[in-house]
Amino acid sequence: MEKEITNIKTIISREALNELPDFLKNNLNISHPTLICDENTFKAGREVLTRLERERISLKVCMLKCKEICKADETSVGSLLLDIDIKADCLIALGTGTITDLTRILAYKLSLPFVSIPTGTSADAFASSVSPVFINNIKKTLQAKMPEAIFADTTILKNAPKRVNAAGFGDFLSKGIPKTDWYISNIVNNESINNKSLKIIQQPLNRCIKKINELGAFHEETIKTLMDGLIVSGFSIALAGSSRPASGSEHQISHFIEYNINLGKTSFFFHGETVALGAYIMTSIYNNLFSLSYNDFHNLLVSKNKKKEIKESREEIFSRVFDADSKGIIDNWKKNRSNRKRMEKLVKLLSVNWKYLQKTVKNNIFDIDQFRDLMNKSGVPFDPIKMGFSPTEISDMIICAKEMNNKYTLLNLLDELNLLDYFAIQLTRNLLTFSEPQ
Ligand SMILES: [Zn+2]
User: Fold this and answer.
1) Residue 146 CA, ligand 1 centroid: distance in Å
2) Which of 101, 199, 209, 273 is most solvent-facing, going by the fewest CB within 10 Å?
3) pTM of the entire structure?
């Protein structure tokens, strides 16, 4: 499948590493490869060193040292950059999301080819052309480089910690949400859609769900379909020229939680776990909203727009949550407020397209029981209450997440309609009820 989209050589099998030395020598014609890893991924992928030494390819190892968890941020980029030899002619990313994101950006800045060797299926970073990196604590998606090849050894992947692989299911199984968010922006803002980039994700997604149900999530075959899906997800980003097909409102919530993790306000979760949480919230909101008939939706809209207390409370929320970063966020939010004309336009567009949107939601968003079942089978946490978040923190996620980037998602639409606070309260209440011990 990948041949039509990109020239990246992709091997996902037990024998994947067999072809690595040959590829480095003959296809890339390199003599000074540099391996980028951290302490854990170095242990997991020792086999790579053995293979290359056997072929007399000497390797410089740049090991990222982190106090607890390695982060893709300006400090990590800087420390790796200082460690990379001036003679380096190729980078090899041995790791999962963080290491691959860091290598990709270094390869881009240094104009070097890079090869990806995944050590777990934690996120969809392997074939991407962009790198999410924390700069001043805010996750920015930067232009980066796609790998020349991906050698995914399924034995290494299968032996990765369960939590690492489970996180990947959280990231990949949520792909119906970015798709639906994009359709919403298409209707509301006339944003053009790259259908091919969406289409290529659908098949691996269906295959992955089937394997989870048939063989269980941690079977080597299922992990293989997951890795395939995570790689295709990267291709879809390259094809669309933006992360639109793979990252929507569920990722906005994830970025918001990661922002708080980075500031030390929230305990650590893997990227795929925060995406699963975001996907759970968005799956609930999508189902709640589009289960309403257009008339019921319109009545809700009218009743919630009679009260005018939102502006004040929103500024307070942003000041409390974003603290030193809040000024720019408040200004931006004010700038994007809908006026009466825009509101009329939105209402008209929604009335005409309500049935179509209901159908799109039905086709792309899991119903909530299906979602819980699939995530439970995948072993990824997704319920914010069970993950230790307070009702206020959950409500903050829903209200603040869309400020993390400039994509237009369902969260933006609800905010423009003055319904975001209502859904935040409703949903937090529902989650509390659902998570009560039975
Ligand atoms: Zn992701």
Assistant:
1) 16
2) 199
3) 0.90
